Amino acid sequence: MKLLVSFNEFLLEKAMADHSQSLILEGGAAGHMSHPFDDKDLTFGDFKKMIESGLQGQLNFEEDPTEKTDGQNLFATVKNGQVYFSRNKGQLVSPLDLNGIIRMFTGHASKMVEDTYILAAKDLASSLPRIKDQSMFNDGKSFMNMELIYSLNPNVIVYDRDVIQFHGMVDTDGNGNVTGENPKAAKELIKLLQDVNAHVGKTFTMIPPQVLALRRDQNFAEKLPYFMKKIDALQSRYNLSDTDEVSRYHEMWWREEIDRAFPNVGSDVKEALLQRWAYNNKGAMDFRTMAKAVEPADMENIKKYDKVDSAKKYKENIRPFEDLFLEFGSVVLKNASNFVAANPSAEMQRLHNQIRTEASKIKTNGGTDQIAKVEAELDRLSRIGGVESIIPSEGLVFRYNGKIYKLTGTFAAINQLMGIIKYGH
């Protein structure tokens, strides 16, 4: 299973995997965010608490929930009165000055991406040195994580504002290693910029994480038992209690599946397969060692399952939890307001119309694979609330027991649909 990792682990994992790739740091608290269903350390009681609180409009367990926006990521720091920028781990060690970031994006395949970064970097290079107290940047070792939202360069959500949204400060040791993070620094830096009237640049306005206003669901009395019944059904499958971690369900599901598919292999091999497919731990027992412990026909079936079936079975295992929280997220987000989009109603209607129109075109004129993928995503969309549940936001971010989680509602489905519509796959 995919485990919830720390911000530091995620940052290093992404950066070390490919230094040519940008750091993708999501949302309103400068951390890697998982859906609640991704964190197998949560209990069924935690799920119930989140759902009841969300339907009450009270996801402010430790801080106010903020909007998860759909823009471009950038890091910036200040040293000796000059602004420097970073897009990957190597640049955390040797960040780029303004000319460097301009060179990096000049000639980019997308002119709009080029403009987004260059115009934002120019605004930041002009504004950040004007703050009187620059100590939060720790002599260039601490970077503000931010998202660039440029109305002329939309992703899935079309925003009608040009903003640089600060997420939080990332502390490093000067060698590119992240040592900590401070989400509160986003608001602090905005206040410092406002004090010297430097928060509005030529193109972008700099803002803190966008706090969302949530209201109690008007159908709370019906929605609460509806979602609780879904959780109870998952618990009852393996007679689990509210205090049981969700990982127990997944482990018991996989044991059941492995016993069904490979009844004749030994318990040590079954444990290794559990580690491999449930926890992605392929080092528990490699196939060469496993081949010595099972019959050739069983080994052949294990290899075939590993290559063809294991990913499908993972999706089958996680799907009821995913559907539960995506549907829950769509309900919560319909009860939210104060989105970054200045005219969320118009953007919501645009998304509804685009999904309906383009999906219909593909179902009429597309290839077999395209049609199948569109129908699968429309089916997922239907399970979690339908087209009418689409709202003009990537989701919301909240903190619970010290961890950062996201609720994205219908965004995953419409993101996939837009990819099929735009790229054909």
What level of helicity do the residues show? 40-55%
Structural class: alpha+beta
Uncertain spans: 1-31
Q: How many domains make up the coordinates?
A: 2
List the total number of helices.
14
Number of strands: 11
Choose one word for the global shape. Answer: globular
Largest sheet: 6 strands, mixed
Series of H and E elements: HHEEEHHHEEEHEEHHHHHEHHEEH
- CA(first)-CA(last) distance: 26 Å
Features of the shown structure:
425 residues; alpha+beta; D-amino Acid Aminotransferase, Chain A, domain 1; 2 domains; 6-stranded mixed beta sheet; 3-stranded antiparallel beta sheet; 14 helices; 11 strands; 13% strand; globular; disordered N terminus
Q: How would you portray this structure in words?
A:
This protein has 14 helices and eleven strands. With 425 residues, it is α+β, with helices and mostly antiparallel strands. The chain folds into two domains: 33-63 and 214-425, no CATH class; 70-207, 2-Layer Sandwich (D-amino Acid Aminotransferase, Chain A, domain 1), CATH 3.30.470. Strands 2, 3, 4, 5, 6 and 7 form a six-stranded mixed sheet that branches. The radius of gyration is 23 Å and the shape is globular. The two termini are 26 Å apart. The model is unreliable at 1-31 (pLDDT under 50).
Helices and strands in order:
Layout: H1 7-17, H2 44-55, E1 66-68, E2 72-79, E3 82-86, H3 89-93, H4 98-105, H5 111-127, E4 142-149, E5 163-172, E6 178-182, H6 185-195, E7 205-207, E8 213-214, H7 220-237, H8 246-261, H9 267-278, H10 287-291, H11 296-334, E9 336-337, H12 344-365, H13 368-383, E10 395-400, E11 403-407, H14 411-423
Parallel strand pairs: 5-7
Antiparallel strand pairs: 1-10, 2-3, 2-4, 4-5, 5-6, 8-9, 10-11
Helix pairs in contact: 2-7, 4-5, 8-9, 12-13, 12-14, 13-14
